[in-house]
Design a protein that fits this description.
This protein is of the alpha+beta class and about 210 residues long. It has a domain of about 140 residues: Pili subunits (Roll), CATH 3.10.610. The chain is built from 2 helices and 11 strands. The strands form 3 sheets. The protein has a 5-stranded antiparallel beta sheet with strand order 3-4-5-6-7, covered by helices on one side. A 4-stranded antiparallel beta sheet has the order 9-8-10-11, with helices on one face. The protein has a two-stranded antiparallel sheet with strand order 1-2.
């Protein structure tokens, strides 16, 4: 009889399963693990977003540097005529003039894959408008229509420019003795979203 009673007790305990306290502890542990998993997943997503943003910023900066390097390295000492027929300097810089841009010059090596009746030279202008660094190009070397701006960078502030003249001196404002003069090099400084940048570019035949 005593053995039968023990068997019935064991069967009764087996049929009861987990207690309420045990279930609550198990659910609490499961919720902690779920929260930890969500936190890890959110951290990984945020890390990927930050990495993608930095890679995108680096790609845009590299695009700017490559484009300005290509333009300035092929700058030519050719004055141009504006819409009124007036002769203008081959190289100009006016940081406070949105119309003319902080860099305006004519470059060579302009491809003509469609065989249009135009020169292989192209006049370009870099401008800063409301924190956006933009590049413009003209349809014709003299006068002509200007293109829609190509946005290169955003969040730009504190833009300053330096020029290395033919005597090898660095100057903060470009002043020409002849309208065909070019600087030997251009130094560009600016801040983008709180980070400072400095780039130096050699200028076409001006340094040869």
């Amino acid at each position: 009889m005593k053995g039968a009673n023990l068997d019935r007790c064991d069967n009764s305990m087996a049929q009861h399963g987990f207690t309420l306290v045990e279930m609550m502890v198990a659910l609490f542990i499961f919720s902690l693990l779920s929260l930890a998993g969500i936190a890890l997943l959110r951290g990984a997503v945020n890390s990927n977003e930050v990495t993608d943003k930095k890679l995108s910023d680096m790609a845009q900066m590299q695009r700017l540097v490559s484009l300005m390097e290509a333009d300035l390295s092929q700058a030519v000492p050719r004055p141009y005529r504006n819409e009124r027929g007036e002769r203008m300097a081959a190289f100009a810089s006016e940081t406070g003039n949105r119309e003319r841009g902080f860099l305006s010059f004519t470059r060579g090596g302009h491809s003509n894959i469609n065989n249009k009746p135009r020169s292989n030279m192209q006049r370009v202008s870099y401008r800063l408008s409301e924190g956006q660094l933009q590049r413009f190009q003209y349809e014709m070397t003299d006068g002509g229509l200007i293109s829609e701006p190509a946005l290169l960078l955003e969040g730009i502030s504190g833009l300053t420019i330096g020029f290395r003249d033919k005597r090898g001196q660095w100057i903060s404002h470009w002043r020409t003795e002849r309208i065909s003069d070019l600087p030997r090099a251009v130094e560009l400084r600016f801040d983008q979203n709180g980070r400072a940048y400095r780039h130096v570019f050699l200028v076409g035949t001006g340094y040869l």
